[in-house]
Amino acid sequence: MTSEVFSYESLVHAVAGAAGSVTAMTVFFPLDTARLRLQVDENRKAKSTPAILADIIKEEGLLAPYRGWFPVICSLCCSNFVYFYCFHWMKASWLKGRQSTPSIDLIVGIAAGVINVLLTTPLWVVNTRLKLQGSKFRNADIRPTNYSGILDAFEQIICKEGVGALWNGTFPSLLLVLNPAIQFMIYEGLKRQLRRGAPRELSSLEVFIIGAVAKAVATTATYPLQTIQSILRFGQFNTPKEKSKLLSSLKTIKGLLVNRARKHGVLGLFKGLEAKLLQTVLTAALMFLLYEKIASCTFKVMGLGSPHYKKH
């Protein structure tokens, strides 16, 4: 069991996934900035992504779209390392050389997502706060914050809001493990379809397209919950007074969803979806492309061949 948990193959996949995601996010980071502003700042008028970015640059400076890049990259690197490692370790342990199926991909994806959420949510809470710090909001109710860096943000949140605040948004995040699970299920399923007949390494264009399709479907299906997740992580909301934390979380999510729908209509739940799709689809497609290439090259350099092509 120990050798299965600490396997070289899982480590290669984890490092490749983390490196690919960090590179892809850096390239498309301004698109994520536009998406987050639309989700959190209710009074900001929904415009096209280029128009939102133009407003941000005009009001806050040329580098504003990259504000909070370092904490986001740190969080993303840790998060994807954990997810890719757990996904490939659990999948290899379950299959033991057999062919995978969409249901197995989905179950393993959900399990890996739960582990990832519980371990990395504090990093995402801090990165959301730092990313939005110094922003010029249209909503006057949003309170300004003053964090000097990642460690200071952790310290201030714990001192002022308690340790539990580092796990703000955990409940919707646990529901959102469906996002990467659906994404990986579609991605792995499309890979198997393209490899029917003879195992082969997919072309760069094929990997890019199926990565984009998988992420587009997963993002659209789960977007309203992603908006609530961002609001909860930002910490600018009123929490219902309930003895049960689960009941409190459910009431908070319901309240935020209903309030947003009342103010902006059902389409208000999808405010920022264009920016999110543009950012997340391009980022995921590039991430999968880099991940496949890095993993493939590593296996070849080590003279192992890729078990990824043979088993999965």
TrEMBL record:
It is found in: Membrane. Solcar repeats lie at residues 8-93, 100-193, 202-297. Its main location: membrane. Keywords: Membrane, Repeat, Transmembrane, Transmembrane helix, Transport. It is a multi-pass membrane protein. The chain crosses the membrane at residues 12-31, 68-86, 106-126. Pfam families: Mito_carr. Belongs to the mitochondrial carrier (TC 2.A.29) family. This is Solute carrier family 25 (Peroxisomal adenine nucleotide transporter), member 17. It comes from Ameca splendens.
